């Protein structure tokens, strides 16, 4: 691993030019510390002859110089800048790059369509735990489609149409009619037909969407449904919801689209052509549902830059949890690692996966490692802060429902309090989910009690379970005085939850 502390990624896209600055902390975690965006609409600026004029090149250089100064202010060690479809497809692309590099001092990589697809896939697959699917990245000037199986990229293709240049070609200032929509659909189908040998062989796979078009439609869908969790990454949409939104937006003028709650003003004119492209691909390949990814090209570039030898993450969930834990250095790591081991020992010995399912072990694993992150905000009532931080952070590898389950397990105090809080998320959680939360929350409370002093007195734990009792034998390095008292206080509530009487013995 290359030890870059701060990395700036610049993406010169066809619709917008973006900067993301990511920091690696002294504890090994990485997180975004700053970003900026300019809706330059490069695909609109390119003339019919394919030329990007000098004055438009100056606009790019001005934006990049501003980004470079932001990187300098943030003491960024490395800046990696790439250009995609708009410049790739320009007739004078070599002259554009030469001018920009001369004016900014930055080296610009011109990505091919295949490289763009590969990096988008890398960013997505490191953030979503999905085995198989189609990845569709609709940019301003191109659309990439990739097939992945067993979390490996199998094949990809790049088409020279995106939301901006399609709007320019088929729409009158963003307003659409049935004929415009039909022409866009015909264009997309004609392009897809040339790749049908591999696009039509995988019916029923999810379509994972990248880019501003699908992120925007996700936010609109969440607004309409009054979705209770403010996360877009890993959000699922069915085809009916997408079709309704496409239909509703396509009949509106651009000015009326801008008035739609949740609509980005600078995307109102280009969103419908982008959605028609997306919807046509979805129907053509026979996908089952849409999944939104908040990670793509820029994330892929980051991983490739910082981890050049092995940029692909093996376990998305474990990596994400460890990264989130490392972002909270005030957490006593030795203690939470010990709690994690004790909790999983209890889980395995009690054969809980038989009752709650194998996935429930991942929930307990996640919750036990993160249960103390709330102390970063304030020690007092840290469980409340832990819940907020977990529920509003991206825990990659978990669905939105699973993030909430883990957050409630980690912050569990008692049945009534938790049940009341769960009602705020009744659009996401099911009635049966409370069974996970209550049982695993109480099990985590028992594990926490076993190291309440945070001195790890219990060196080995033996577990004996029958229909009426849970026996725990504690092999201790020093007297577990506080631990025994805490467990005693849990006896009654534990029996209510699990139907088991706690029996304790210990040796030094």
TrEMBL record:
Residues 21-305 form the Ppx/GppA phosphatase N-terminal domain. Keywords: Hydrolase. Residues 326-475 form the Ppx/GppA phosphatase C-terminal domain. Pfam families: Ppx-GppA, Ppx-GppA_III. CDD domains: ASKHA_NBD_HpPPX-GppA-like. Belongs to the GppA/Ppx family. This is Ppx/GppA family phosphatase. It comes from Paenibacillus psychroresistens.
């Amino acid at each position: 691993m290359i030890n870059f502390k701060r990395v700036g990624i610049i993406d010169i896209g066809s619709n917008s030019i973006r900067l993301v600055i990511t920091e690696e902390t002294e504890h090994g975690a990485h997180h975004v510390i700053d970003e900026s965006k300019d809706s330059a609409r490069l695909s609109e600026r390119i003339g019919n002859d394919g030329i990007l004029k000098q004055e438009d090149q100056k606009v790019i250089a001005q934006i990049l110089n501003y980004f470079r100064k932001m990187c300098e202010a943030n003491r960024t060690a490395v800046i990696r800048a790439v250009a995609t479809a708009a410049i790739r497809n320009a007739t004078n692309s070599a002259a554009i790059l030469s001018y920009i590099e001369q004016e900014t001092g930055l080296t610009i990589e011109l990505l091919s369509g295949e490289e763009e697809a590969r990096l988008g896939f890398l960013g997505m697959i490191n953030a979503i735990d999905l085995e198989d699917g189609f990845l569709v990245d609709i940019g301003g000037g191109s659309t990439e489609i990739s097939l992945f199986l067993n979390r490996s990229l199998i094949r990809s293709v790049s088409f020279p149409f995106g939301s901006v240049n399609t709007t320019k070609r088929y729409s009158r200032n963003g307003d659409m009619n049935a004929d415009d929509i039909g022409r866009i659909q015909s264009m997309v189908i004609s392009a897809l037909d040339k790749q049908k040998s591999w696009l039509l062989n995988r019916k029923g796979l999810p379509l994972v969407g990248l880019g501003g078009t699908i992120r925007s439609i996700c936010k609109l869908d969440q607004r309409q449904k009054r979705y209770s969790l403010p996360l877009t990454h890993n959000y699922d949409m069915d085809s009916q919801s997408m079709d309704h939104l496409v239909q509703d937006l396509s009949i509106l003028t651009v000015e009326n689209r801008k008035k739609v709650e949740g609509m980005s003003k600078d995307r109102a004119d280009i969103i419908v052509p982008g959605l028609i492209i997306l919807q046509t691909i979805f129907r053509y390949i026979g996908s089952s549902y849409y999944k939104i990814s908040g990670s793509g090209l820029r994330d892929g570039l980051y991983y490739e830059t910082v981890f050049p030898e092995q940029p692909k993450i093996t376990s998305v969930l474990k990596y994400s949890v460890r990264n989130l834990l490392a972002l909270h250095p005030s957490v006593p790591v030795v203690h939470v690692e010990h709690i994690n081991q004790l909790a999983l020992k209890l889980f395995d010995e009690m054969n809980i996966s038989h009752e709650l399912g194998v996935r429930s072990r991942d929930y307990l694993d996640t919750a036990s490692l993160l249960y103390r992150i709330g102390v970063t905000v304030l020690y007092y009532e840290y469980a409340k802060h832990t819940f907020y931080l977990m529920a509003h952070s991206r825990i990659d590898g978990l669905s939105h429902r699973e993030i909430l389950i883990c957050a409630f397990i980690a912050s569990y105090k008692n049945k009534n309090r938790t049940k009341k809080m769960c009602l705020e998320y009744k659009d996401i959680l099911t009635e049966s989910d409370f069974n996970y939360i209550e049982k695993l929350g109480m099990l985590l409370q028992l594990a926490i009690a076993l190291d309440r002093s945070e001195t790890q007195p219990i060196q080995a734990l033996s577990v004996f379970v029958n229909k009426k009792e849970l026996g725990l034998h504690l092999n201790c390095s020093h007297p577990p005085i506080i631990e025994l008292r805490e467990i005693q206080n849990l006896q009654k509530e534990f029996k209510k939850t699990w139907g088991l009487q706690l029996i304790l013995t210990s040796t030094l």
